[in-house]
Amino acid sequence: MTGWITVAGLGPGAEAMVTPEVGAALDQATDIVGYIPYVARVAAREGLVMHPSDNRVELDRARLALDLAASGRRVVIVSSGDPGVFAMASALFEAVEAAGADPDIRILPGITAMLAAAARAGAPLGHDFCAINLSDNLKPFALIEHRLRHAARGDFAMAFYNPRSASRPEGFARVLEILREECGPDRLIIFARAVSTPDEALRVVTLAEARPEMADMRTVVIVGNAATRRVGRWVYAPRSAGAT
Amino acid sequence: MTGWITVAGLGPGAEAMVTPEVGAALDQATDIVGYIPYVARVAAREGLVMHPSDNRVELDRARLALDLAASGRRVVIVSSGDPGVFAMASALFEAVEAAGADPDIRILPGITAMLAAAARAGAPLGHDFCAINLSDNLKPFALIEHRLRHAARGDFAMAFYNPRSASRPEGFARVLEILREECGPDRLIIFARAVSTPDEALRVVTLAEARPEMADMRTVVIVGNAATRRVGRWVYAPRSAGAT
């Protein structure tokens, strides 16, 4: 039996946003590897072995997948959203490089959180934008600040992943200060929590009104560009937005 | 009968990447509005009226959808990829604002081209990144250059939509020059054409080797950050990439 690894994006939460190719990969798998709440989204069936693991052990998880595939298993590593956006695909390739391995790998895209959030809000990412992981587990805050300032000065809309955790709440407060400095108080900011799940909540405020506690680790934050505006309950970036 | 408008993302091409909620919206529609090749992807059935239109008439298309919904029709505006990324969602909200209308609108996300391309290449968008529309139909080239330089100086990976058309081939040549200036000759660049269709082609080169004719309007271009590397046939951004 020839083993393989598929890294599959489960989308933001709703089953109606899981692509058919991801569903087919799950049907063919012998083993599911991933963070506990994502593995819990896969339906159990006879012969399917679940390998749930805690957060922040991405490399261990990738190595487990390599070992399983080397022994002939058909492994799906599940990610929330899209596996290539601040998720398991990069960790897998780090493990592949370190191991000098060459397994059969497929990456299957999914609906990433910022696009699900943007769809609920209107079209805030309809013009040029950046995606920034605000977690400082893997990079210094100085680099986050450097990127925020370049993104703001380039008048990009911005989407933030992992904006705030209990262990480092002060980082996001500083992010909001930097944004107010660079973009002014009237810029629109969207807090989109747990989109497409029963806990979904959407809030649109200005930077002046924004507070750190409006975000948690289930929230994606989107900041508009200079032309981003409201129409009714919607927020959108005009197609011709932006000025040097 | 109460009309509505749904703006739906059909993904990059393969049916296996169309989400179930988009399929359900197409099943409920009375009218399909969109660019000719995207409308052609929707299966015909009795009572379903197709309204294909040419490129660059996004506002006319949005107004048609508003008129149809006002008369009680159930309209799906189809976009390739995700409707919120350089596609029809922003145009619809522009038309809504101009008309002072308040129709029943839903935006359904789809697999956007850069994420489908990234999945085929490995994980080049696994760290912070920007998405930039290189079409200068709706913005001056000076703004494109301004954003490219900020993106490069922030050490963002970059994904480019609409890199090159027959009517303005010189723009993309200039983009490559700017990137070589900012990022040096060894930076990796990915040309991903028509991902998930029978015409799919993927090419990975350095900026020194990149040529404008490697891209056309069916190509998404992804530029790595300073840490982006190859492992076997794959290209990925390590999770801890980047330095100020």
UniProtKB/TrEMBL annotation, chains A, B:
Q: Does the keyword Transferase apply?
A: yes
InterPro entries, per the entry: 4pyrrol_Mease, 4pyrrol_Methylase_sf, 4pyrrole_Mease_sub1, 4pyrrole_Mease_sub2, Cbl_synth_CobJ/CibH_dom, Precorrin_MeTrfase
- Look up the record and name the pathway of this protein: Cofactor biosynthesis; adenosylcobalamin biosynthesis
Report the GO molecular function annotations. Answer: precorrin-3B C17-methyltransferase activity
Domain (Tetrapyrrole methylase): residue spans on this chain: 5-210
Q: What is its EC number?
A: 2.1.1.131
A single GO BP term for this record reads: cobalamin biosynthetic process
Keywords annotated in UniProt: Cobalamin biosynthesis, Methyltransferase, S-adenosyl-L-methionine, Transferase
Under the heading CDD domains, the entry gives:
Precorrin_3B_C17_MT
- One Pfam family from the UniProt entry? TP_methylase
Question: Can you name this protein?
Answer: Precorrin-3B C(17)-methyltransferase
Native source organism of the sequence: Paracoccus liaowanqingii
Organism classification? Bacteria, Pseudomonadati, Pseudomonadota, Alphaproteobacteria, Rhodobacterales
